[in-house]
Structure formats: C-alpha cells, structure tokens
C-alpha cells in the first residue's frame, strides 16, 4: 500500500462497517419473511423499514463526513460511490418486503428462497470485507466471490421469470411477482457494484 505523509480521516471505515452490518440485518429480515405467514409479514416489513431508515442515516453520516473532511482515506468519488451502493442494497431489500405486503402475496414462487439465500451470503461477505478497507488486504476473494454470486443470482432470476410465464399464474399475479423478483435481482446487482467499487479502491491504493 502506498505510504502517505498526510493524516487521513479514519471514521469512514467504521461508518462503512456499520452500514454493511445493517445490510446483514436486512438480509436476515428477508430470510424471516420466507418462513412467515401473511399475518406476520406486516411486522417484518416495519422492522425492515426501520433498518432501511438506519441505512439512510448511515449514508447521510458518510456524506456529511465527506463534505467536512479535508483529507479522506481514498478518493472522494469512490467514497460516495461505495456509500451510495450500500444504501441501494438496503433500499431494494426494503422495497421487496414492502411489495410482498402491499400486494398481499400469499405464496412466493419457488426460487425466491434461492435469491434471498444469495443476498444473505453476499451481505455476510460484504460485512466481513468492510473492515479490511483499513489495510486493503485480503479483499480479492471477496470481490471475486460476490461477482460469482451475482452471476448465480442472474441464473436464478432467469429461471424464476421462465416459471412465472409458464401459464400457471394469471396476468396480474405475474406482474406482481415479477416486480418482486426483479427488485431482488437489483439488490444482487447492487452488491456487485459495491464489490466493484472496493476493487477499484484497492487497485488505486496498491
């Protein structure tokens, strides 16, 4: 890693770690949603909404720190990109849960549990990776694995779409379920954006 003569603001590391930990909380709520009956989903959605608000607060704190810091640990645009992509993940997960409740979905199609399992694994990897931003060490396996998971998520998403359009569901139900699985796919894409940003930062800092 490049040697620096100037001090750097280090609180960003803690804030990124906190944001990623909150995403793990969101992924656990998604997992909880899978096993919940319709009557319990509204309460899960409330907790997810609270987690999403906590994510917003974490993102705003990073932006405030960015705007008030003369020296940053790495490029400002990369800090902004990383914080925004982490925030996007929470937004998509919260949207998926909210749609399940608003659309009064009785049963999610087979394959959604695989989507959520991928997101949960990506959340764990992201939370584990954030503390390594301090040293930029032991991050290569993280972004490789998250990219692999995103490819897996793409395959699951395509199979889900094929299932939705096989004639089993009526047209309105297809539209509802497709929107949910599409949002979960966007969450997987956002995890990849985070990993790609971390890779960019690591390359610049090497």
Automatic annotation (TrEMBL):
SUPFAM superfamilies: PhoU-like. It comes from the Bacteria. Coiled coil: none annotated. Transmembrane segments: none annotated. Pfam families: PhoU_div. InterPro entries: PhoU-like_sf, Put_Phosphate_transp_reg, UPF0111_domain. Belongs to the UPF0111 family. This is Putative pit accessory protein. It comes from Streptomyces jeddahensis.
